[in-house]
Amino acid sequence: MRRGLAPLLMCCALSGPAAAADIVVGVAAPLTGPSALLGEQIAEAAYVAAQAQSPGVVFTAVDDQCTAAGGANAARSLVASKVSIVVGFLCAESIEAALPILQAANVPVITVGVRTDSLTDRRFKTGWPVWRLGPRADGERNAVGEILTREWREQLFAIIDDGTIYGRELAESLRAAAEQVALVPVFIDTFRPQLDNQIGLAGRLRKAGATHVFAGGDFEDIAVLGRDAATLGMDLVIAGGESLRAEPGPVPLPAGTLMIAVQDWATVADPALVRQLQDEGVMIDGYALPAYAAVQVAAKAVADAEASSRPLADVLSDTLFETAIGPVDFDDKGDLAASPYRLFRFDGTAFVEVR
Questions:
Q1: Residue 16 pLDDT more than 70?
Q2: Distance between CA atoms of residues 311 and 192, nearest Å
Q3: Which one, 98, 129, 153, 269, has least CB within 10 Å?
Q4: Cβ neighbours of residue 118 closer than 8 Å, sequence gap 6 or more
């Protein structure tokens, strides 16, 4: 059954009084306001994870409200609760306000949702004790370039975008990555989005001889292009980014469409754990499984640091952690050492990872 927000608000220790061997883990998330559903997802998954740890974990949840003021208040509350480590945070405003306070108290943070590049890029300047269990903002762009230049080395490929900042940055990243490995696209263009048909664009791609195309755009435009390319008799492979995880529109996505996106953690995690979270009423999409894994990392790191008398920051930076979403380790900036992005192919019903 869902526990709801009330028992999770403002420093409620949900695992009972701390014993001598207990590890005190703080969870900061938006538990009120427009992002409360996501915050509750994090808090509930973290609660389940805390119950499964040995030695015991005392779980303390605070509402950061996804604001700077909320983040600062959350940090002060967690420091007062004598937490050893904090997990959570979805918003840059709240974590950036919280980190100086937590840094002064020597409390490290594992964020599961803040993608802002500067959070870790400035680490050597700020000294902020932050580790990121999730993608960076530039992770999708880098993955598109890395994966498609590898997969399409022998293909006649095109690069198109819808003119938005999102689409243009993805397309430009692929173009730059292709240039670095001496690959030349047969066609580059910016298309007009949200049209009822893309016959003209499909025709230009056919004339250029493209057999593969990366489209920096949204789900509906990619679906329309795939439909119209098929109408022209083209066997065109289309690839897109994480926007393809959007809810389907009136035009179905063609089978064979490729997507570069973060792993679906529910397909990676132990099915028994997924069922347990579902039985607890926790939504397993989004941040639930990363939050569960973050508590596992936190508990292991604190226990290892205490056992070895090493600084907790060193343990977080140097250890390979086994978690519900697979092995996790961090680079020298605190980002994931391995990219969480993978290549998926649409089979007509769902996206399946390309092994």
A1: no
A2: 54
A3: 153
A4: none
